């Protein structure tokens, strides 16, 4: 059975609670949360951010120096700067959770049995990223040099990052809980029409896209802030929207390649895996969402607020 039947199988999968006991589901969920918290607690942000800055520096030059060169380099260079900034952010603490979205995107497959359906889902997901990027870019472009300087202050960017990623993390935790059947008593109270709409694969793909697009809003990555300074110097909401879309596409580029590799390269294996135990699809979708949500809530909502993270530094493992 090829990839064109995987999504049909997944779409008919029973809820996780139909195949796993409450204790089993709780054990899997706690394990996913603990692993995510450990990763967040030991995350070496200076190392990862430095890697991203090095990628940008080797590609376009020093982002900090380039941030104030809009008058010299102009509109066209901004698109190249945007693409590099997006790709450079791939492995930051903000963006690493995008890979937790991948199983949810693959695991919510559409009813149509074809690769085209998988690509349609990917397209809807990408549109969500583009919509948020364009909206945020219009805001950035309208700030101008003075406005972006105030917006880029350490206090503001940390507050925005904490708020955005804590909210996103909470949403992912709730979504993962629903996938694993922990919130059935709550979801049963929702109207059938609402449940039907939310359960549609296109709705899920769009929501995932909007969530990943929101990573742009919260990201405090230095290269990103340098790029925002460049984009805001245009004093053009339209230009800001255009280049921010490019950043959004850059931040999901690797995830998209992995998704396509699964669709075109590992379809038969994935199909057999799902067919052997269709209930695995709920776990494949729910557990990564729980892990990603736990990472965000701990890293941004708790570690910064209460100083309980940075364990590698406290233990002297990181310089």
Provide a compact summary of the structure.
The protein has 319 residues and is an all-alpha fold. It contains 18 helices and no strands.
Structural overview:
The chain has 319 residues and is an all-alpha fold. The chain has one domain (3-314). 77% of the residues lie in helices and 0% in strands. The protein has helices spanning 6-11, 22-41, 45-59, 63-66, 70-88, 98-107, 115-151, 154-179, 184-187, 192-199, 201-213, 215-218, 222-232, 237-251, 253-265, 267-276, 280-306, 311-314. It is globular, with a radius of gyration of 20 Å.
Strand fraction: under 5%
Number of E-type strands: 0
Rg from alpha-carbon coordinates: 20 Å
Number of domains: 1
The level of helicity is over 70%
- Mean pLDDT, as a whole number? 84
**Shape verdict:** globular
Q: How would a crystallographer describe the biggest sheet?
A: none
Tell me the series of helices and strands, N- to C-terminal.
Answer: HHHHHHHHHHHHHHHHHH
Report, as a whole number of angstroms, the end-to-end distance: 51 Å
Count the DSSP helices: 18
Structural class category:
mainly alpha
Give start-end ranges of low-pLDDT stretches.
Answer: 1-14, 108-113
């Amino acid at each position: 059975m090829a990839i064109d039947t995987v999504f049909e199988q997944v779409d008919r999968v029973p809820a996780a609670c139909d195949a796993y006991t409450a204790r089993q589901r709780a054990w899997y969920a706690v394990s996913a949360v603990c692993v995510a918290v450990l990763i967040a607690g030991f995350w070496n942000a200076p190392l990862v951010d430095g890697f991203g800055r090095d990628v940008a520096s080797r590609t376009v030059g020093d982002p900090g120096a380039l941030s104030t060169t809009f008058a010299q380099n102009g509109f066209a260079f901004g698109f190249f700067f945007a693409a590099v900034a997006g790709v450079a952010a791939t492995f930051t603490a903000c963006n690493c959770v995008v890979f937790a979205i991948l199983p949810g995107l693959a695991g919510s497959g559409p009813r149509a049995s074809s690769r085209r359906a998988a690509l349609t889902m990917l397209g809807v997901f990408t549109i969500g990223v583009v919509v948020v990027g364009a909206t945020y870019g219009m805001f950035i472009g309208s700030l101008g040099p003075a406005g972006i300087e105030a917006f880029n202050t350490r206090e503001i960017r940390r507050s925005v990052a904490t708020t955005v990623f804590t909210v996103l993390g909470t949403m992912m935790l709730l979504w993962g809980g629903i996938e694993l059947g922990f919130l059935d008593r709550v979801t049963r109270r929702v109207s059938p029409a609402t449940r039907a709409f939310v359960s549609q694969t296109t709705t899920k793909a769009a929501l995932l896209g909007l969530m990943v697009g929101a990573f742009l809003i919260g990201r405090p990555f230095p290269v990103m802030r340098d790029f925002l300074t460049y984009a805001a110097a245009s004093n053009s909401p339209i230009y800001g929207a255009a280049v921010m879309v490019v950043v959004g596409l850059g931040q999901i580029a690797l995830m998209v390649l992995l998704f396509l590799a699964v669709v075109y390269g590992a379809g038969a294996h994935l199909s057999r895996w799902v067919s052997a135990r269709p209930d695995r699809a709920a776990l494949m979708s729910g557990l990564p969402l729980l892990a990603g949500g736990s990472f965000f809530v701990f890293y941004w909502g708790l570690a910064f607020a209460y100083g309980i993270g940075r364990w590698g530094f406290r233990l002297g493992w990181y310089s």
